Amino acid sequence: MEKIVSLCKRRGFLFQSSEIYGGVQGFWDYGPLGVELKRNLKDAWWHDMISGHNELAAPAGAPGPFEMVGLDSTIIMHPQVWKCSGHYDLFHDHMVDCRESKKRYRFDQVRGRWVEYGEKKIFVSTLAEIEEELNEVRRRGMKFFKLRNKDADKLTVGDESITLDKLDSTADVLAPDAKQLDTLTEPREFNLMFKTTLGALGGEDDTTFLRPETAQGIFVNFKNVLDSSRVSVPFGIGQVGKSFRNEITPRNFTFRSREFEQMEIEFFCRPDQSQEWYRYWRDRRLAWYKELGLSDDLLIMREHHQEELAHYSVGTADIEYAFPFLPEGEYGELEGIAHRGDFDLRSHMEGKLNPATSPMEVELGENGKPKYRGSGKDMTYRDEATNEKFVPHVVEPSAGADRAALAFLCEAYTEDEAPDEKGNMQTRTVMKLHPRLAPVKAAVFPLVKKDGMPEVAQEIYGELKQHMNVFYDAKGAVGRRYRRQDEAGTPYCVTVDGESLTDRTVTVRDRDSLEQSRVKIDDLVAELTQRIR
Ligand code: GAP
Fold it and tell me: Residue 358 C-alpha to ligand 1 middle, in angstroms?
């Protein structure tokens, strides 16, 4: 992971936000290569899920044809949205404070190991990255028991890495920044939504939130979309945009950020068909990650157990990836696909529902009135063929653009061997990104900066630039130029050499196979366009 992080910074994929001021935790900036990668990823999602979807034919595995449309709703919405959605009451993480260091941690994210010395057994916790964890626990254990290096073998460190929430008590815990045991408070709930104020006066009534998910913008626009675009059930509304969560322990590079982008679909269907649609979307979304290059053996689909599901849901599954910063055998969530029944539409219509009731009823406050009043707007759908009226059920595939970008970066990072100019094998670092995701599709080089080669290369560059993101480089040895493009993930390098001047052909080098083929300059656009699809 360290190598990936360092490449991302060195080559301009990702930078820490406000780095010149020491950075701000949980916020990341995408550099010139990163912004292209993430844009390509979001464009691929938008094309494959929304704009490129053919509503006239049922895709493989789908119960039937369906329509897909897009939306771009605001980040700040009416505060009642978050009350009816449940985020105001329920969007909590458990956190603990350390009485000694005054630091705050997310309970389920602090890891550690049991450490024994003589009769005494303590739990040493740490925020160190997973590859550093064992050494860090040992170091802190030695320090706690005041052991010298020569006594290191008298200390036993447990094999298992455990998170704090799995312990029965925190009495024997050495907190990540503490010197004494038992300094952690009981876990408390903490709302993850960022508060903000509307207007200049800033009273309590003007408080609202930065959206913690894009999904609610879709639910509150359900009727607008229905009335304005002639879609009929089953159909989906997709949205890509920023979300904000005040995560207590943002970590693992961009994996858990405080500002991130989501790519969400709310798919509206007949209640009696929702199970089939749930299965379709679960499988379709897993296949999408594989089509773009994530390996089968690093991806899993984790179906939630029956007891984890709300009673109105027929299923929830997480698509998870074996990120390299996680311990062996652990996976991190890339996307959740949830069957949400009619909870959201009815909550925005009638008032926040109590998900524990069956059939679901509006949650009442102490005065016996709805705790959070809904909009009162009719969110039912009338089937024109049967004249039936119902509140559609919803299947929600909810993906994170930053997590997906991180997974593709991790997957792409490869070290292999390639010959240098003299034919000697050298280790090379290559980002094997799918051509659709690659920030730069092709680099154009004159072999040398003379004999008319730069002029031909510049002509090719100008032509290709009309069709795809290409990069021109005439500086330094050609081998070194290839290496720089390999690190940037550029799938093809086009080189103008002596032969090009006589027969108007160039070499096209393939990043992964290193094969070079000669292509006519006049055929380049068509050839590369076909190869990067
Ligand atoms: N509307 C449903 C929803 O928001 P979620 O599981 O909380 O569900 C969906 O989030 C996806 O958003 C996650 O699978 C993940 O990819 C991404 N995501 C959530 N929190 C994130 C964070 N703090 N940093 C980066 N991505 C995050």
Answer: 27
